[in-house]
# Entry
Amino acid sequence: MKWLRSLPLFVQLLAFSVVMMYLPMAFAIRLEDWDVARTFFYYTTFLLILLALVGIAVTGYSSRNTARHYLVTVFAAFLTIPALLALPFTYLVPSITYFQAYFEMLSCLTTTGATLFDDPTLVPAPLHMMRAIVGWIGGFFILVVAMSIFAPLQIGGFEIFAAGRGTQKTSNQIATAAARQRLTRYASQIFPVYVFVTSLLVLCLLIAGDRTLVAVSHAMSIISTSGISPVGGLQGASSGYAGEALMFLFLFFAVSRHTFFFSTDKEVVQNLKSDKEVNLVLICITVIPILLFIRHWTVAFEVSADVEAPSAIAALWGAMFTVLSFLTTTGFESTSWEGARSWSGLGTTGIILMGLSIMGGGIATTAGGVKLLRVYALYKHGQREIDRLSHPNSVAGSSLRVRMIRREGAQIAWIFLMLFVLSLALVALALSATGISFSDSLLFATAGLSNTGPLANAAGESFTGYANISDTGKVILCVAMVLGRLEALAVIAVLNPNYWR
# Structure
């Protein structure tokens, strides 16, 4: 065990990801699908032997113990892990190429959930389990990376709090941050909670009536916000409204960074009460569903004056669940969401779902997008500027921290927003060059950069599936998914000339 801890982080990440492939092997054995079980056993064992040889070769190698160095390692791991996991996937699904399998695994690892298989029956059940596990691993990775690497580098949303504290202190913190110790500490803290929360949701969904595969896959997808489903979404689940209500509650783990530390933080209740991200989400899941409900109800009432109360309540619930799902970049649609549209006869409100996905969840969570804290900083800055139009000589109150958020924090949030919009424009332009229409290119770019793969199907009226995109378009989407998962500021930190010197 001591030898494993001494290995470079890159080898440890590869080994952990490969070992997890024994889980779908065990599921295939339970189903008595011996061909799939043997394939997983052979590939997993072979890859572990190769990684053991690599580990022996690099034993004693001492790398720089800084957050910036490990940021490069994580960047390389996100590109390399799917290449290993795609090997058994390619063998078991002969209809796809190795690159298509790589796209599928990268989509899962980045918790995007953009699948090439519109018909879930084309993929064996153990492979669906594998997709959910890879997404679950990706969610755990990004939680640990956010707290141990993004935090000392002051990126990933943490720059909002760090703005205005001085660049010298930032440089010293980056230089002295013992990243390996932080990785070990946060991984040991988060993993038990991560497993416990997932297991609890699995148990609840099983009690609600879901099959084992569906319950495990949906639980992993909710906790990691990957939106991966073995039955094509919640419409194929058996748990009904009870399952949706359970998932709705567990989606709040992607809202605040305090949720995964309730076992170690005694003041978690107070932190959640004062968390601006939680308050912003509560406003969104209250105001937006009401507006959508009024929109549907108005049209339905014009068609028929006797609107049934159960249909109206179901429509309101469908809007609430779907809003929170896309706000956390999970991408699951409520079964009542389609009912609300058929109830009123209105089409998809795609622009709203795109806006929610871009807004994203909390910092240091499994959610993607711009992040709620940056949105809050921009909101407070805009509110203050409006107040100054009415009272130019006014002096704003609040604490020093709040004043920093709405001044320096808002400035860095605006810079990140501009980087995100610029990335969105470049990715959409590149996709358009491959022959995709402009509207679909913008939709695919938003889905990739916000790590919300199901967005293309939910918001696109002419969506024909990710499988129909050319290989060039898939390469562009791969870049967008990695860029969205690690964020533009992290990639810029990797490419910073000061680091390479």
